[in-house]
Amino acid sequence: MKKTPENQAALLLAVNGLNLLASVLAGTFLNVYLWKARQDYGMIGWFAFSQQVAVGLSFWLAGKWVKEHNKMNALRLGIAVSGIFYLLVLWAGESASSYIWPLGLTLGVAIGLFWLAYNIIYFEITDAQNRDHYNGWMGLLGSLTGIVGPFLSGWLISRLQGQRGYRVVFIVSLCIYGAAAVLSFFLKKRKSEGAYLWLEPWRELRRSGSAWRPVAGALVFQGIREGVFSFLIGLLVYLAAQTESKLGQFALITSSVSLVSYYAAGKWFKPRFRSAGMLGGGILLVAVIVPLLWKLSYGTLLLMGIGTSLFIPLYMLPMTSISFDLMGETAESVSKRVEWVVLRELSLMSGRLLGILVFICVLSVSRSSQVIIVLLLALGTAPMGSWLVLRRRLHRREAGDMS
């Protein structure tokens, strides 16, 4: 296969698609699996917390390997460790909830290694002009895997019942991770460049007038929301419906809507619309949570999920593109792209850890549904914080595009 930039982009999307499929196939029901063993919100929260600690540390520590040596091997190792994680879950069985920290740290290392390498390769094969388009395709692919994976795993778990269903789902995920690892060998080896600067993310944030300061702040706000929403929504859907098949159905419907919205955003969402898109998207993401204040049920959660899937591209596409655009502004910033990817992830991690700690503290005081909804509403306003700290930069960018 000729390794043209277009082929490499398609291959990278394919590797990411398989990795996403394996992740959502098993990961959608992972927290439900743990919850069935021990009904404890704190346990679920600490599992998510341990993952994020490992993700951030993996980005920072593996940055040297990715910049100075072979980033493709980091990508493959991330896939391999994901497989090892599910082997450990299979081995632990119903006792998995007793090993929250080692399991969470293992999964976090897998996620960190894969996404560090992926983000660097993604930056190298895209530019400011085609990045929104590529992000649209990436969102489209994520939606497709979100349709197939949870629906299939929910059907298998419900049909086979109990531990057997979960074991089959975890084994299928292992096989898909293996396919992703094999396909990754067709990706072109990327050359290493320069020495890794361990403390550059902190130096940059301390530098007066740094363009990364508002971007890092916006990423912290993004992390505050997604750190909790990423695991709590699926768990709430299961608790409301009391069956895995309904959670699979929820994922199928919301991912179908997301597929359409990301396709539309990838086709028509232009850089000059980023500020208005982020503001409108942030407001609408809060609005879709409000119906839960009246009733927490499968129906209202589905309404929120559909609304979120419909409006999230307005927020996520600018958030993804603006930081990667900043990496490519000058030759010097391009040479430090690994450090900037690490800075980006550490900012997200900080927000996610903060959001999860708020979740753990609040749910340790009260587990009532009303408290949970108010918490979701409060954390759901975080995208507005992203827009507030980025609005000046977004307006400058739009003025440049219009000139």
UniProtKB/TrEMBL annotation:
Sorted UniProt keywords? Membrane, Transmembrane, Transmembrane helix
**What organism is the protein native to?**
Paenibacillus typhae
- The name of this protein is MFS transporter, YQGE family, putative transporter
GO MF annotations in UniProt? transmembrane transporter activity
Source organism, top-level taxon? Bacteria
Q: How does it sit in the membrane?
A: Multi-pass membrane protein
PANTHER family from the UniProt entry: INTEGRAL MEMBRANE TRANSPORT PROTEIN-RELATED, MAJOR FACILITATOR SUPERFAMILY (MFS) PROFILE DOMAIN-CONTAINING PROTEIN
For this protein, the parts annotated as crossing the membrane are 12-35, 41-62, 74-93, 99-122, 134-156, 168-187, 215-241, 247-264, 276-294, 300-317, 346-365, 371-390
GO cellular component entries: plasma membrane
The main location is membrane
Query: Where found?
Result: Cell membrane
Q: Mind telling me which InterPro entries this protein's record contains?
A: MFS, MFS_trans_sf, Sugar_transport-like
Write out the coiled-coil annotation as residue ranges.
none
